Structures are given as structure tokens and as C-alpha cells.
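Incident log, support desk, overnight shift.

02:14 A customer reports that sequence design results differ from what the structure should imply. Their input is reproduced verbatim below. On-call engineer (initials T.W.) acknowledged and began investigating.
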């Protein structure tokens, strides 16, 4: 791997960002409330849970669409990014075992173009219906001095915040994950809403239809909406299968599994099939395999960790919602480590590296 990663050359220095976030979180955790905190979890999980009473918690998460909005601007197609906004939020909230019930959206625009806003609204509606959530309010900000489009005046940014409910005795933290537990992977629908800075740099001609994409244009593939896993996971949680860990595979790739506990590691020895778009990005960028596995989902968008003796029931249920669901690996006793033996990679909090 070169000294400067392909992602950094595309403008995203993840190592520096992690240092910056650590400093921010360190300040925020020192907020003086004058009362005990309601937070049930520490920072670093997909969502946090605030204690409402002795039995009920509210799960909270916020996320945006990222530079996927630039692809939408360049194509003049705005009807899918709302789905991404909903997905990136609800998929995080379900990771703590909560049922999402509402999303608020924040839309900053260069200019309030009626047709653009209508299209964005259509995507938000579609995503909300897929996830079973309401959008009871939001905010529109016209910021022409701050937002610049590609092209102007169609610049925008789209962010959401999700709220869910969970019984405090049913919060899924990952602390019950034990060596030998099965890791079940659900397929992604594409690049989702992470790593678009690198993907756009590698695939800059949006109208191109390379043979690897089976006749689809680069732009259409990059705009493919993020899969929403809410209904599948909620059914699993209510099925009687013991769900010990839930992981939304976003930035960080399969290293996101390490959010599920400090006492275990994971071996992903049967990864889901890699989507063609990732092979194309790999071929056209200078990113090596380890970096690709840290930036993209690579074909697996969500993981569920269940006891090995209940895995068949879990796979059958989840596959009805997300065809192609399969066992991809298992938990190990190698704490804080993710092994990808078929790729010769091993990862920890610092990232993936070659082994052997």
C-alpha cells in the first residue's frame, strides 16, 4: 500500500478524521448535566439508547447521504437519495435492537428548486415506507453562500436523525457474542452511501456503460439506493432466535463487527459474493485490497450474529427479505481481530493488513 491511501488522494483522510472525532467526543462526554446521564451505551456503537423509565429506552442516531448527492446533482436525478438518507439512519438504529418509528430530515440547498425538492421528497417517502417510519417534521435551509452544486444551482446536502424504541432488557449490544457464534451476512444493493468520494474518483464518467456493469451506466449503479434491513431484522428479533449482535456494514467494512464486543474477534471465511462495481473500482483505482475492505461494504450490507445451533432458522427468515443471505463466518476468541482468510487479510482497530 502506498504512503497515501487512494481514499486520502480522493480527499478523505480517515486516520486524521478518527483523531479529530476522538477529540470531539472527549469534549462532549464531559458535558455537566447536573444529573446522572440517561445514556445506556457508551460512544462508538451504531446508535445510543436513552433511558426514559425503568423499562423503556429511546434509540437515537443521525447520518447523511455524503457525496452521493454529487452524483445526483451531476445526473439531475434526485429521486433516490432520500431512500439513502432513511436507510443510513434506520439501519443504525436497528443495530441496538430498537424499532425505528420516526426520522427527521435536514435539507440544505443552494436554491429551493421545486422539482428537485419534489424528487427528494419522493425518495424520502419511499424510504420511510420501506422502513415503516414516519417523517413528522424536518428543516429546509437555503444557503447559497455555503452550498455549491455540481452544477449550480442544484447543490444540496441531506441529513437525517432517527428515533426508535427498545425495551431496556432487550437492547442488543454485542456483549453476549461468544466464540463459535455464526455471522450471517445480508447482501448490499451496491456502494450504498459510503466511499463515494473514492468511487466517483475511480468511475468519473457517469454515462459510461462498462461491460462489467452488464449494460447499466456508472451513474445508475452509483445511485442504486442503500438497502433497508429494518423489516428483516425486526422479524428476526421477534422470531425466537437469540440475536446476539447486529452490525451495519458501512465505512470500515467488516471491521464494523468489532463494535460488537471487546472480548471476541471474527473470522469471515465465506464472504458474500463481491458486486461487479467493486471489481471495477479496484481495477481503476490505486487502492489495494486492504483499503477496499476498509472503505466499502464489498457486497455485504448487514450482519447478524446468532448461536450456531440457531443459524439455519435465522438464514431462512432473513433470506425471505434479502435473497442471497448466508453464513459468512463465526466469532472467535481472538479479541479485537477480524480475519479474512480467503483474502489473506487480518484487521483490527488500525485497519486491515496482509498476513502470511
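02:41 Re-run completed on a clean worker. Output:
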Amino acid at each position: 500500500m502506498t504512503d497515501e491511501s487512494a481514499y486520502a488522494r480522493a480527499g478523505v483522510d480517515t486516520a486524521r478524521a478518527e483523531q479529530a472525532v476522538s477529540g470531539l467526543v472527549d469534549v462532549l462526554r464531559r458535558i455537566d448535566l447536573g444529573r446522572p446521564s440517561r445514556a445506556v451505551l457508551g460512544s462508538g456503537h451504531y446508535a445510543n439508547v436513552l433511558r426514559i423509565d425503568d423499562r423503556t429506552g429511546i434509540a437515537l442516531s443521525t447520518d447523511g447521504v455524503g457525496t452521493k448527492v454529487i452524483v445526483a446533482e451531476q445526473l439531475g436525478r434526485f429521486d433516490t437519495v432520500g431512500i439513502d438518507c432513511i436507510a443510513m439512519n434506520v439501519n443504525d438504529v436497528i443495530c441496538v435492537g430498537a424499532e425505528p418509528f420516526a426520522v427527521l430530515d435536514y435539507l440544505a440547498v443552494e436554491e429551493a428548486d421545486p422539482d428537485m425538492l419534489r424528487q427528494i421528497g419522493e425518495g424520502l417517502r419511499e424510504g420511510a415506507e420501506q422502513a415503516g417510519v414516519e417523517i413528522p417534521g424536518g428543516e429546509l435551509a437555503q444557503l447559497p453562500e455555503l452550498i455549491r452544486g455540481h452544477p449550480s444551482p442544484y447543490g444540496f446536502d441531506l441529513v437525517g436523525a432517527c428515533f426508535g424504541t427498545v425495551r431496556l432488557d432487550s437492547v442488543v449490544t454485542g456483549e453476549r457474542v461468544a466464540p463459535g457464534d455464526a455471522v450471517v451476512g445480508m447482501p448490499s444493493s451496491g456502494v450504498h452511501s459510503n466511499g463515494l468520494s473514492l468511487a466517483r474518483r475511480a468511475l468519473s464518467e457517469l454515462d459510461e456503460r462498462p461491460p462489467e456493469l452488464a449494460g447499466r451506466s456508472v451513474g445508475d449503479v452509483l445511485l442504486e439506493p442503500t438497502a433497508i434491513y429494518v423489516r428483516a431484522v425486526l422479524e428476526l428479533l421477534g422470531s425466537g432466535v437469540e440475536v446476539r449482535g447486529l452490525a451495519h456494514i458501512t465505512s470500515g467494512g467488516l471491521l464494523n463487527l468489532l463494535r460488537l464486543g471487546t472480548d471476541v474477534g471474527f473470522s469471515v471465511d465465506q464472504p458474500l459474493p463481491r458486486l461487479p462495481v467493486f471489481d471495477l473500482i479496484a481495477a481503476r483505482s490505486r487502492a489495494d485490497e486492504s483499503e477496499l475492505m476498509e472503505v466499502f461494504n464489498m457486497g455485504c450490507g448487514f450482519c447478524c450474529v446468532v448461536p450456531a445451533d440457531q443459524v439455519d432458522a435465522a438464514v431462512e427468515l432473513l433470506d425471505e427479505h434479502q435473497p442471497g443471505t448466508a453464513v459468512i463466518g463465526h466469532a472467535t476468541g481472538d479479541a479485537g481481530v477480524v480475519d479474512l482468510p480467503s483474502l489473506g487479510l487480518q484487521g483490527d482497530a488500525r485497519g486491515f493488513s496482509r498476513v502470511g
